[in-house]
Structures are given as C-alpha cells and as structure tokens.
From TrEMBL:
This is Alanine--glyoxylate aminotransferase family protein. The modification N6-(pyridoxal phosphate)lysine is found at K189. One of its GO terms (biological process) is glycine biosynthetic process, by transamination of glyoxylate. One of its GO terms (molecular function) is alanine-glyoxylate transaminase activity. InterPro entries: Aminotrans_V_dom, Aminotrans_V_PyrdxlP_BS, PyrdxlP-dep_Trfase, PyrdxlP-dep_Trfase_major, PyrdxlP-dep_Trfase_small, SP_NH2Trfase/AEP_transaminase. Its cofactor is pyridoxal 5'-phosphate. It comes from Hominifimenecus microfluidus.
Length: 380
C-alpha cells in the first residue's frame, strides 16, 4: 500500500489500529461507556492544557467547525472571520448558513496574521459576537499566532473560535493561555487516528452564549447543547462510535507518553524547510511556517500531477492543494505518525529522483541535505 505522507489523513500507528479492533459493547446501554467517553474527553483537555470541557462528536473535522457556528450564531449576529487562507475564509460560509453576518478580515495568504494589525482594526470595530481563526491553514501551510490574536479579541468580549484541526499536537497550543472559547480538532491529522471524529473544547463563556440564545439552534447533529448532562444522564444525542473512540483514546495515550513530540515536529519541519530552500525550491508561506505541513511551489516547467505521480511510483503519497492553490503547490504532511526521520528521508529521496527526472534543476541532493540538518539537530 502507498505510504501516506499527506497533511491528513496521516499514518495510523499499530496501537491505535489494535484499540479499534477490540470488542465494544453497546454505547447506549453499557453504563461504562459514559466513563470511557468522559475519560477520553478529560485526557484531551489535559493535553490541550485547558480546564474547559471537551466533547467528542461523531463526524469529520468539518462537523466541529459547523457545530461551532451552528451553536453560536443567531440570525443577524456579526462575526469576524479572520481570513488569510482557504479554511480561514471558509468559516464565512458556515456563519452565513446559520443566519449570521460574516465580516471578513482578509489578509495576504503568504503571511501570518499580525497581532498589531488586528489590534488597530479592533480599535475601530469590535462589535462582534465571536471571531473565527485558523491555527494552521493546511492548504497553504500557514501557522497563525492564535495565542497572540485571541487575547486581543477577548479584551472586547468577542468569543474566540479556533480551528486547530491540523495544528494541535504538532505545534504546541495551550487553550487556556491562548484564551480560546471554542477549539476544534480532528482525529486524522497530527492525532494520527483515522478520519471520523472531531472534538471541541468549550469555555464557560461559550456555553453561556449557547444557552442564552433567543432563537433555537437550527440543527440537531451540529447542536453542541445536545450533550448537556450526558454523563449524569448516561445519555448521548446519538449512538456514539465506540471503536472510533477507543482508537482516539489510544492515539491520545501515545501523545501523552511522548515527551519529544513538539521538539521532533519542529526539528523535522525545520530540516524540511531548509532542505527545500537550499535546493532552490520556493516555500509558499513567506513567514508563519507550520511544523505540521510544508508547502512549496510547483517549480516551473512541470506540474503538480506529474510530481505526485512520480512520488506515487515510489510508493509514497504527497498532496497537491485545492481551491485558489489548486495546481500551484505540493504539500508534505510531517505531522503525527508521519513525523519521523525514516519516512521523511524516503520522501526526500523520492522527491529528489522525481524532480530531476522531470527536468527540475536542484542545487542540492535532497536526501543528503535533509540528513545533515536532521542530524545536526538544527536549532530553532
Ligand atoms: C483537515 C482540516 C479540517 C477538516 O477537514 P476534513 O475535510 O473534515 O478533513 C478542518 N480544518 C483544517 C484547517 C483542516 O486541515
């Protein structure tokens, strides 16, 4: 099978696959399931450094984003949509769908959002119920400093909704320090469980906003209040996917037992960026580099499909991108279980071979250069 080195889904380690194959009872009738669910939620909160409650929802990462907007938005609410990437902009659709008025704060996709610029903007206009932000905008590999941006919004009482589906557990994030009211995560990025689950952390302020609405939430599946009191009542709004949750628990246990997690992501990401730029390739972001995904421009004279096909022939899968970046860039996902030197060395060898075969001049041998940087344990 092709080894996936994509920015989600990622490879799934054996303990996660084994956990998913264990017998599981009836989540609706087995009282122990509520404990299993709650313990997994509590572990996630702890790993994200927050006192806030976590809820795991059955559905892909997108469900978390939609549930946030469905549960918070009332008709006519102004919502500030921080947009310097494809997911950033995408939040506007969910806001509109639930009757809100998205106000786009649009900035250059090749730069991270800047705290001082946002502060200036908010001085003039801060009448927003909540704001949406993307920690790592995966299609462009852009990492935004949400830990600087959210406190600026909170100063004006604006609730903060952050999509860190592809950032969390690759780039360190403390939900409480960053003052994030509603954080969205997913199972299939750095968490390294298969796609199928999303989870959210909810502050008291976010819960209060949901409970004090004047209009009902226009959804059942995306209504976060349906989980109210689940533990006491031993009652979930729909049958929970027991095997998926066992797998997620195993993935979180691996994260909890990995003291090198963030250092390894950073070292591998840094070695990858340096290797590609030394060889003459161009990274898409000009700053704000994520430690979970590296995005570089398709070199002149070839295409993304030709590069991806060449890589596939060598048993590996990288990704192109989509929307405004379709055909323009290649993405290497070095997050979660993908973040290991052995796989990254294979990626570099395959990329070197493929690009040269396509007539792309490279100033360095990608594999040798990567090994030098990775071994040098490069600083910063
Ligand atoms: C992957 C991802 C999601 C979830 O998208 P899916 O299509 O459900 O996988 C949401 N936000 C970001 C930034 C992502 O990278």
């Amino acid at each position: 099978m092709t080894r996936i080195m994509t920015p989600g889904p990622t490879q799934v380690p054996e303990p996660v696959r084994i956990a998913r194959s264990l017998p599981c009872g009836n989540p609706d009738l087995d009282e122990t399931f509520a404990d299993e669910y709650r313990d997994t939620c509590r572990l996630i909160s702890r790993l994200l450094d927050t006192e806030n409650e976590t809820l795991i929802l059955s559905g892909e990462g997108i469900l978390g984003l939609e549930a946030a907007c469905a549960s918070l938005t009332e008709p006519g609410d102004r919502v500030l949509v921080l947009d310097n990437g494809i997911y950033g902009k995408g939040f506007a659709d969910f806001v509109s769908m639930y009757g809100g008025v998205p106000v786009l704060y649009t900035r250059d996709m090749r730069h991270a959002l800047k705290a001082d610029e946002l502060a200036d903007y908010l001085e003039k206009d801060h009448n927003f119920k909540y704001a949406t932000l993307v920690h790592c905008d995966t299609p462009s590999g852009m990492l935004n400093p949400v830990e600087e941006l959210c406190p600026l919004l909170k100063k004006y009482g604006i609730l903060t909704v952050v999509d860190s589906v592809s950032g969390m557990f690759g780039n360190r994030l403390s939900v409480d320090d960053a003052q994030i009211d509603l954080l969205c995560g997913g199972s299939q990025k750095a968490v390294s469980a298969p796609p199928g689950l999303t989870f959210v952390t909810l502050s008291d302020a976010a819960k209060k906003a949901m409970h004090e609405r004047k209009t009902p939430i226009a959804s059942f599946y995306a209504n976060l209040c349906t989980f109210d009191g689940y533990y006491e009542k031993k009652w979930f709004p729909y049958t929970m996917p027991g095997s998926d949750i066992k797998g997620l628990r195993a993935a979180m246990d691996l994260i909890a037992a990995d003291p090198e997690l963030y250092d390894r992501h950073h070292r591998i990401a840094e070695a990858t960026r340096r290797t590609l730029t030394d060889a003459g390739l161009t990274l898409y972001p000009l700053d704000g580099y994520s430690d979970t995904v590296t995005v570089f421009e398709v070199p002149e004279g070839t295409t993304d499909t030709a590069i991806l096909a060449g890589i596939r022939e060598q048993g590996l899968m990288l990704a192109g991108s989509f929307d405004v970046l379709a055909g323009k860039v290649i993405r290497i996902g070095h997050m979660g279980a993908n973040a290991n030197d052995a796989d990254m060395e294979d990626v570099m060898a395959a990329l070197d071979h493929t690009l040269r075969a396509l007539g792309v001049p490279l100033k360095k041998d990608l594999l040798a250069t990567y090994k030098d940087y990775a071994n040098a344990n490069c600083e910063k």
